[in-house]
Fold:
Amino acid sequence: MRRRLALLVAATTSLVLLAFLVPLALLVRTVAADRAVSVATLEVESLSSLVTTVDRQPLALAFEQAGAAGGRPITVFFPDGSTVGAPARRSAAVELAARGNSVTARVPGGREILVAVEGMPAGTAVVRTYVSDSELTHGVTRAWLILALLGVALLGIGLLVADRLARSFVGSTRDLASVSHELAAGRLDARAQAGSAPELREVSAALNHLAGRIRELLAQEREAAADLSHRLRTPLTALRLELESLRETVLTDGPPAVPGSLVRAEASVDALERAVSQIIADARRPARVAGQGSGRCDAAEVVTERIRFWAVLAEDQDRALSAPDTAGPLPVAVHREDLATCVDALLGNVFAHTPEGIGFAVGLEALPAGGARLTVADDGSGFATSDPLERGVSGAGSSGLGLDIVRRTVESTGGTLAVGRSASGGALITLDLAGP
Structure:
């Protein structure tokens, strides 16, 4: 780029200089020739008055002295054919001047300056002088050399300025390329400096914005991977509880009571398999934009189904369960699998973070403006942290992602999540699900 800019400036400057200097050089030559001719003409005219007033012998002496002083030969052609002064051929131009017309004629090696002198008895006399080509071009070579040096200097200055500008452009471009390579190498903190040109500043700002966006997207992907992995905790918790219940059944009631526990364990394994399949599907699904619904479902149907699943574990652990009796449908702007994941996360937290025998209640009611309100309250000791919604923070040894997954799922569809204390002093979680 730097070399191309230099070549472009050199070509442009050369064309401008040629368009300016060539006519100027021709003008200098013309002015020099006109000056020489004017000087010679003025000299001849000043001597022409002597032709009619001075005798020929003094006239010859005066013209000889004038020619020696001016460096040009001077000749007088009289009407009778005689001449005075430097020897010269009587050319056609002399004949023309003898008719009363002062002329300047081009001859080999220079120019003839012919001045007609009238008033003589025999006709018109002609005063002639000769200006050589060297006198016509006197000083032209030096002037052309000065113009050439001026053109070279201007071209050099143009190239120097172009090179400085090109260096700034190339430097900014290389900085952009360097930042791009650093971003490709995983150094997402790299940022481009603002360039000198407005366009380069715009590109730098766009690249920095892209770098920030890449960093945000990677953080979102990491959080999404953590969220998807957390979904496995709920079916794993249910499976662990079923296996513990199976062990206790074998120890207390004997082998005849095992088949029922095996059925529930198989159901938990099926739920785990469905959770893994759902994780794979969610990982392949594009990210959703906050505030835009991802689907719709019947909240009453989904909540009833999930409560039926957890009710078996609640019965095994002697947990009192209060289920909603709201009749559907209750349409909400949440995908069926997402809402089921939220309900499983909330109920799984009850089983994971409260001792056996602690009861809980699930409430579901329609909202006046559309949608539904889902509440989960337990009789435990409440939340172990002051801010249970802080992502990745848990006071009970878990990942601290469950409530954050529920919150982001609900908020992405226009709903809200709130936490508090239940009437018995335990944890209370309220989900307001937006309508479709």
